[in-house]
C-alpha cells in the first residue's frame, strides 16, 4: 500500500487520483470528530425543574410545556420556568414572562398570562435559533432573553462564550448609546440559573436539596491554593474572587450557585455558629464598598479555618483573626454534606 501511494504521488495523474482517494477519507474523519464533539458537550436539556420555583410559577408548567412543544423545545421547560421566576415570580405582573418588549410594546403592556407565555416562548425560540446560527453558548442565549438578540452578535465577535464581564461591557455600551443610566441585568444568567436543578449521574441536584461528598468540593478548591485573587474571576484561566471560587467548586457536585456573595447568602439556609460544619459558608460584611451587606464568603473546613479567595490570594484563613471577627456577618448552608469531617 505504501509503495502504491508513493508511485501515485510522483505522477501527475497519480496525484489527481490520490486526491480522489484521500479527500473522502478526510471528510469522513471530520464528520466523525464533529459527531463526537456534539455527543460529549453538555446537552441543552440537562437542567431540571428547581425546587425553589414558586407555586405561582409552577401553576403555568403545563402551559409552558405546551408552548415549547410547538417549537420542539420541550427539553427547555426547566429553563423557561426559571426565566419566568426571575422575570416575575409568577405574581409581580400579569406579563409573567415580561415579553411585551420583545414584540415592540411598552413593558407590562401584555395583561394575559397565557399570551405572555406564548410571546415569551416565541422570543426564547428566536434566541435559540440565533444562538445555533451564531455558534455561541447557551448562557449567551439566556442572557439574550434579557438583553435582546444584539448580545448574541456581540458575544459571537468576542469569543463565543458568555461571561459576566462581557455582559457588563455590553450593558455599559448600550446604556451609553441610548443615554440611559443602566441597561438590563449583567448577572441575568446567574439569577436565572439559581432556579434550576441539574443532573449528575442520573440524580437531580440543586442548591436547595443537594447532598454530596464534602471532599469533592474541598479537593477542587485546594488545587487553587496559592493562586492570586482576581476581582470578577470565576475560572482557573483568570483565577477567582471569593464568590467565583464557590461557583466553580460547587459545580463539581452539580450545585449551581448564584454569582455574588450576597446572592449566595440569600439562598442559603441560615445556621448558627454551633451548627457550623465543614462545607458550610461563612459570610462577611464591610470588606469593601459593594453597596450591599454581604461582601465576602469563605467555606468552613474545620478547626476554626475557612478556605477562601481574598486580597492576599486563595488559601486557608484563620477565623479567629481579628479582621474576620470584626467583619463576620453570618453562616449559611447550601449542601447537606456527607463525609465532612473536621481535621
Alpha-carbon distance between the termini? 64 Å
What sort of overall outline do the alpha carbons produce when their principal axes are compared? globular
Instruction: Report the CATH architecture of the largest domain.
Output: Orthogonal Bundle
Largest sheet: 6 strands, antiparallel
Q: Which percent band covers the strand fraction?
A: 5-15%
Question: How many structural units, i.e. domains?
Answer: 2
Query: Which consecutive residue ranges, at least 5 long each, have pLDDT under 50?
Result: 2-6, 30-45
How many strands?
A: 11
CATH class of the largest domain: Mainly Alpha
What is the helical fraction, as a range of percent? Answer: 40-55%
Task: Give the gist of this structure.
This protein is of the alpha+beta class and 343 residues long. Helix content is 44%, strand content 15%.
Amino acid at each position: 500500500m505504501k509503495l502504491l501511494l508513493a508511485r501515485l504521488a510522483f505522477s501527475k495523474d497519480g496525484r489527481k487520483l490520490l486526491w480522489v482517494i484521500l479527500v473522502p477519507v478526510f471528510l469522513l474523519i471530520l464528520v466523525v470528530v464533529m459527531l463526537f464533539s456534539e455527543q460529549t458537550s453538555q446537552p441543552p436539556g440537562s437542567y431540571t425543574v428547581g425546587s425553589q420555583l414558586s407555586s405561582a410559577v409552577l401553576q403555568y408548567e403545563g402551559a409552558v410545556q405546551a408552548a415549547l412543544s410547538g417549537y420542539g423545545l420541550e427539553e427547555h421547560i426547566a429553563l423557561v420556568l426559571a426565566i419566568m421566576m426571575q422575570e416575575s415570580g409568577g405574581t409581580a405582573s400579569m406579563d409573567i414572562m415580561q415579553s411585551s418588549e420583545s414584540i415592540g410594546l411598552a413593558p407590562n403592556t401584555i395583561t394575559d398570562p397565557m399570551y405572555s407565555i406564548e410571546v415569551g416562548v416565541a422570543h426564547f425560540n428566536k434566541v435559540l435559533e440565533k444562538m445555533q446560527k451564531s455558534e455561541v453558548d447557551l448562557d449567551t442565549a439566556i442572557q439574550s432573553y434579557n438583553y435582546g438578540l444584539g448580545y448574541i452578535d456581540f458575544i459571537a465577535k468576542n469569543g463565543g462564550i458568555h461571561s459576566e464581564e462581557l455582559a457588563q461591557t455590553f450593558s455599559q455600551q448600550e446604556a451609553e448609546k441610548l443615554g440611559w443610566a443602566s441597561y438590563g441585568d449583567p448577572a441575568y444568567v446567574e439569577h436565572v440559573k439559581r432556579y434550576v436543578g441539574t443532573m449528575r449521574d442520573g440524580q437531580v441536584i440543586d442548591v436547595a436539596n443537594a447532598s454530596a461528598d464534602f471532599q469533592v468540593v474541598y479537593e477542587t478548591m485546594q488545587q487553587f491554593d496559592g493562586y492570586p485573587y482576581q476581582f470578577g474571576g470565576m475560572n482557573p484561566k483568570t483565577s477567582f474572587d471569593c464568590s467565583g471560587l464557590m461557583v466553580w467548586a460547587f459545580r463539581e457536585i452539580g450545585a449551581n450557585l448564584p454569582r455574588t456573595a450576597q446572592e449566595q447568602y440569600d439562598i442559603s439556609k441560615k445556621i448558627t455558629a454551633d451548627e457550623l460544619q465543614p462545607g458550610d459558608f461563612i459570610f462577611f460584611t464591610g470588606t469593601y464598598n459593594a453597596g450591599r451587606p454581604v461582601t465576602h464568603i469563605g467555606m468552613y473546613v474545620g478547626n476554626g479555618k475557612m478556605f477562601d479567595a481574598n486580597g492576599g490570594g486563595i488559601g486557608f484563613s484563620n477565623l479567629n483573626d481579628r479582621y474576620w471577627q470584626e467583619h463576620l456577618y453570618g453562616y449559611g448552608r447550601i449542601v447537606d454534606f456527607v463525609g465532612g469531617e473536621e481535621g
